[in-house]
């Protein structure tokens, strides 16, 4: 997978932004408003910045498909459960094994077939599904970066709202800024505290 191969090369540079990521993710996690002590699966966890914050109040398993990224994640987060896992394959977990499964800026990098498979597996393994990714207006700088990464960003921007709705007719989209949002599906009152406006 060309997109995944890229992260074998840029894992160490990604680590330079670990602190910045943590600062940003604090606000994102506040918007999730999860019930404390949830069992969470973080797919495509990267450097583990979000997982490290979630692990303060939750039981978190962080996985990534890149060997280099997993190595960085383990170094930066020695107290977090970390594993290498190809998320485009069937996940080795039981149905509803987790309270929450989330992914952050991962799905836009996958082709539609893989993206739909991941959504299906997310829905299977957890009650609550959260996708944090691009939303709303496109920006020139982002367009350039994503063109270089050779993911599926441009199709994602056109198609993902419909793709997510096909799995979760009752869902919410919670904008974080002009270019990103939380897509939330599979509402569970025992897991999600905050009230979100359904779309």
Structural class category: alpha/beta
CATH superfamily: Vaccinia Virus protein VP39
Strand portion, in percent?
Answer: 15-25%
Q: How many beta-strand segments?
A: 7
How is this fold's topology laid out?
Blueprint: H1 2-15, H2 18-32, E1 39-43, H3 49-54, E2 59-64, H4 67-76, E3 81-84, E4 98-104, H5 112-125, E5 126-134, H6 140-149, H7 153-167, E6 171-177, E7 180-185
Parallel strand pairs: 1-2, 1-4, 2-3, 4-5
Antiparallel strand pairs: 5-7, 6-7
Characterization of the model:
Helices cover about 40% and strands about 20% of the residues. The N and C termini lie far apart (about 35 Å). The chain has seven helices and seven strands; from the N terminus they run ααβαβαββαβααββ. The protein has helices at about 1-15, 20-30, 50-55, 65-75, 110-125, 140-150, 155-165; strands spanning about 40-45, 60-65, 80-85, 100-105, 125-135, 170-175, 180-185. Strands 3-2-1-4-5-7-6 form a seven-stranded mixed beta sheet, sandwiched between helices. Mean pLDDT is about 85; it is low at about 195-199.
């Amino acid at each position: 997978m060309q997109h995944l191969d890229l992260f074998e090369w840029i894992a160490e540079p990604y680590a330079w932004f670990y602190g910045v990521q943590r600062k940003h993710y604090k606000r994102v996690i506040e918007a999730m408003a999860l019930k404390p002590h949830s069992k969470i699966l973080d797919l495509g966890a990267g450097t583990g910045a979000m997982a490290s914050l979630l692990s303060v109040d939750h039981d978190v398993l962080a996985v990534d498909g890149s060997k280099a990224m997993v190595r960085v994640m383990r170094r930066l987060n020695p107290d977090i459960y970390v594993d290498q896992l190809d998320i485009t394959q069937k996940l080795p977990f039981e149905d509803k094994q987790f309270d929450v499964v989330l992914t952050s800026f991962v799905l836009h990098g996958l082709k539609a077939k893989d993206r739909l498979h991941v959504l299906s597996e997310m829905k299977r393994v957890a009650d609550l599904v959260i996708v944090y990714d691009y939303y709303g207006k496109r920006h020139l700088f982002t367009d350039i970066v994503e063109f270089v990464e050779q993911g599926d960003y441009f199709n994602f921007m056109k198609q993902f709202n419909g793709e997510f709705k096909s799995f979760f007719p009752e869902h919410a989209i919670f904008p974080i800024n002009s270019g990103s949002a939380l897509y939330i599906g599979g509402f569970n009152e025992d897991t999600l505290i905050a009230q979100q406006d359904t779309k």
